[in-house]
Specification:
Blueprint: E1 2-3, E2 14-17, E3 26-28, E4 37-40, E5 45-47, E6 51-53, E7 58-60, E8 66-68, E9 72-74, E10 77-79, E11 84-87, E12 93-96, E13 99-101, E14 103-106, E15 111-114, E16 118-120, E17 124-126, E18 130-132, E19 138-140, E20 144-146, E21 150-151, E22 159-161, E23 167-171, E24 178-180, E25 186-187
Parallel strand pairs: 1-3, 2-4, 3-6, 4-7, 5-8, 6-9, 7-10, 8-11, 9-12, 11-14, 12-15, 13-16, 14-17, 15-18, 16-19, 17-20, 18-21, 19-22, 20-23, 22-24, 23-25
């Protein structure tokens, strides 16, 4: 499914999507130069394969769950508005583009790979597979719940706990790289 094209008229680039059924692929396109914006409406959206947010376009999740079974490529703007973005693929998935997620949930049964630095503004849940930083930083600004290993073939800050209030790390993960940059402290519950 492609939203926007070379014929998208000026002032007519605000689209909404009510995705009652899964979508195979989703691409937002700004070849018109009129900066289309796509806003999710009413129901969560599942994308079976890849989501590509084109340069000069915006996807507003509008606080609704966004489930991805393929890759996430952000060359434009992703606005979470308090949503859950869930990576749920059965093979490796890649996050490309500087992106701020609200809640990010990784239940991908293989590897979730970062191709860029990303930020998680609220909660980070890592429950299946492996998180591969690939030399990039995941800025966690809220609590981290994790039961999977993290890895990176290149030295990096890994998960950087850099919230503005005390954060918690909960779970049984082994972290390849973990950085603390929170003046209010990190709490690691015992037992």
């Amino acid at each position: 499914l492609q939203i926007g094209n070379a014929n998208t008229a000026a002032g007519k680039g605000n689209f909404t999507i009510y995705a009652g059924k899964a979508i195979k692929n989703l691409l937002t396109d700004n070849s018109s130069g009129n900066t289309p914006k796509l806003t999710m409406q009413v129901v969560p959206m599942t994308i079976e394969e890849n989501l590509t947010i084109g340069s000069g376009t915006e996807l507003d999740a509008n606080g609704l769950n966004l489930v991805l079974n393929g890759n996430f490529t952000n060359n434009g703007t992703f606005t979470a508005n308090g949503n859950n973005t869930i990576f749920n693929g059965s093979s490796s998935q890649t996050i490309t583009g500087l992106t701020t997620f609200y809640n990010l949930l990784d239940s991908c049964s293989s590897s979730l790979i970062q191709a860029n630095d990303i930020t998680v503004a609220n909660e980070l849940h890592l429950t299946s597979g492996t998180l591969d930083h690939a030399g990039h930083v995941l800025h966690a600004q809220g609590d981290v719940y994790s039961t999977i290993p993290t890895t990176s073939s290149t030295v990096c800050d890994g998960i950087s706990l850099d919230g503005s209030s005390q954060q918690q790390i909960i779970g049984t993960s082994t972290y390849k790289y973990l950085t603390t940059n929170n003046v209010n402290g990190i709490l690691i519950p015992t037992g």
